[in-house]
# Entry
Amino acid sequence: MSEDRRLDVLRAIVEDYVATREPVGSRALVERHALGVSPATIRNDMAALEESGYIAQPHTSAGRVPTDKGYRLFVDRLTTVKPMSVPERRAIGAFLEEAQDLDDVVDRAVRLIAQLTQQVAVVQYPSLRRSALRHVELVPVGARHLLVVLITDTGRVEQRTIELGADLDEVVVGQLRARLNVSAAGRRLSELPVALAELADAFGPSDAALVEAVVGVVEETLAQESEERVVLAGTAYLARGGAVDFAGSIGPVLEALEEQVVLLRLLSEMAEDNASVAVRIGRETQHEGLLETSFITSGYGDENGTSVARVGSIGPLRMDYPGTMSAVRAVARYLTRILAG
Amino acid sequence: MSEDRRLDVLRAIVEDYVATREPVGSRALVERHALGVSPATIRNDMAALEESGYIAQPHTSAGRVPTDKGYRLFVDRLTTVKPMSVPERRAIGAFLEEAQDLDDVVDRAVRLIAQLTQQVAVVQYPSLRRSALRHVELVPVGARHLLVVLITDTGRVEQRTIELGADLDEVVVGQLRARLNVSAAGRRLSELPVALAELADAFGPSDAALVEAVVGVVEETLAQESEERVVLAGTAYLARGGAVDFAGSIGPVLEALEEQVVLLRLLSEMAEDNASVAVRIGRETQHEGLLETSFITSGYGDENGTSVARVGSIGPLRMDYPGTMSAVRAVARYLTRILAG
DNA sequence: GGTAGCACTCCCCCGGCACGAGTGCCAATC
DNA sequence: GATTGGCACTCGTGCCGGGGGAGTGCTACC
# Structure
């Protein structure tokens, strides 16, 4: 029994099942694919594939359906990411380049992915922690409030207000601003604490409170997990065709998607994958509500390996893996290019 | 035939249908409510109510179901908004007061409403147009970029970057900042254009480009419709119990909710209602996807009449109107109090 | 190893039927 | 005139049984 053909059979099953949503039987398989053997032979192969856990029958005397494991083998070995067509690429680039600011870029990207994949799209805001600081601004607001504005190289702007015990000294604020920018600009936020630690020494004890407060706020801001935001679009695609793809309604899926924590965990796990495109299939998401979904993401935001955040698409197990992977990767690349420019 | 009893019957039908999701018949009605008459009498009343369009039968030989018009009469005349209990109020206040900044307030509010109403919650960010300006800041970023930061009295912070044709003159920027704050602070954004118009005259022609650019950006920012953001939570509630409440899947509803434009239109229309709580039932939403939903909102953000934005809850036609109305109103009031404080 | 045939299983669809809930109408009653 | 009880009628729903079809596993054969 040829090992190669067995993999061909698995690929054919995945492709047919994705296309038709129907369990696929041996006869249909030989009819639709040039396998060169008879249904009976295929049946033997299918029995072996089932034995190994790559496919399963919903019930006796039904066709076969890929399992999580089957999809995994499919994406790992049976498919090559097909590049997008030139017009598609051009459209993606043009659409994203029209964006005005970071919010707009993110918004366009998420809509674009939803549109391209016809699935739920996810875009993570550029992580503060992994961005480099471009500028720090201190803005007195009234006598006793100071607004701290951080601007990153990805265009993200964060601000915090500090309430002070004493009235502000404009001169000191000016000095602090200058110092901050010297020691901070161009650095990754993760390297900042070291640079900031010595800052306090440069000022007299009378200003210690101010310096401390500002430094504290800057560090706190970059450490704040909650500022890791994700944006969604296309949730309506989950309900397509009466939510046929989800046995137990789409409620749990929507719940999972609203839990930013869940998505952030997944995104950070997938960042470890070291692949241009990361895939989580069914159970691999490690989350109850996402058991019947697959999640495909790609990093963006830095030319070399380390990305500052991720974009992705979530759909039913029964999804177009090659298509989704290439769409997600394409958008991630354009994002990277735009944020760099 | 008593007109009063007929309204009682309508109320009973709405209440029963909301509670059971089953069309309600005459017998069930007399059993569950102390109407003091026989089923046959109720049948006559029901025939009259149907004649007037307040109720309808899904099919012959089924019970009655309220129509949009029936729900409308119910909320207008047959229900009084019951206040929330003291512990509930206390919990709401406590939860909202823990918030750190405006984003956090909005986030907490939207989750709170979703939780309280067990429906989709909507919170609109305080409108720029209707807020007052607290402070304008100009921040040079590099030699040729200027960051404009607007801070409103509701704590909202907006920023834009300007690219300039010539290098910046720090002194002029300083003067402009001072002037801007004098003429702008405390004003509603809608009154600003007038105040800004005369500003250009105070500077020499060499700085005209700069002044013009800054004024342009400020005006543009406040005019920008797209900056009217809304935040959602609880979309998973739509799918509760297999989306029984929505004949044609929840897809169209999700689509409508993702269209910020749709929600913003509705919110602004409802702001005209001059009621503490505004209600749109089914068709009244004027949107295809929301035909089978009702939308309840309340304004917040200003002690006297004019609110700066709205909060609301969207659920099936068959929803707990009194409960939702009181929850939405309560949250709106606490929001107002917190933003003022 | 591949193939053909065959018996078997099980889902799905359909028609028929009884049941129950609910109505509308009418005549009788207060 | 409003209310009521009775009654025939309608229609959706659940249940049952049977036919058709798709697909499988097994075995014997090339």
About this structure: The CA atoms of residues 40 and 136 of chain A lie 71 Å apart.
